[in-house]
Specification:
This is Calpastatin. By secondary structure, the protein is an all-alpha fold. It has ten helices and no strands.
């Protein structure tokens, strides 16, 4: 799997994205490649370009020596704002992307519990569209 599209996209903005997350106020346009979601959930060209094809690609993303640690760092940074609403930090559209991202990565076998914590902290339930796409027969 070629994840270079993510490393290229992050190269110029990762530090700014982390700074915005630490401040608790997203301003830039980096959500697609910092908190990726399942391919097919977003309809824009950018969403399609950065969508992950399924659990195998999500697992590869987590195992990547740069992308995995960056995703974990960003997820943990979001958790520092556990007393706030994700929409206040990210805006309503990007809060949905975070929910989709957390649902996807929480489903990766052996994933760090921070993804389930994001769901428990900021959202009432996992993203139904992501769960249905990952588990079409069982819905679980």
């Amino acid at each position: 799997m070629n994840l270079e599209r993510f490393t290229r996209a992050q190269s110029g903005v990762y530090a700014n994205a982390v700074a915005e997350l630490r401040e608790g106020q997203k301003r830039g346009h980096w959500m697609w490649f910092i908190f990726p979601q399942l391919l097919g959930l977003g309809k824009s060209t950018t969403a399609r370009h950065f969508g992950l094809a399924g659990l195998a690609e999500a697992e590869a993303y987590l195992a990547h020596p740069v992308l995995g640690p960056r995703l974990m760092d960003c997820a943990r940074t979001m958790m520092r704002h556990s007393e706030r609403d994700a929409q206040d930090i990210l805006g309503p559209v990007d809060a949905l992307k975070l929910r989709s991202c957390a649902t996807l990565f929480a489903a990766v076998p052996g994933a760090d519990p921070v993804f389930a914590a994001l769901l428990d902290t900021f959202f009432a339930e996992p993203c139904p569209g992501t769960r249905l796409a990952l588990f079409p027969r069982s819905g679980s």
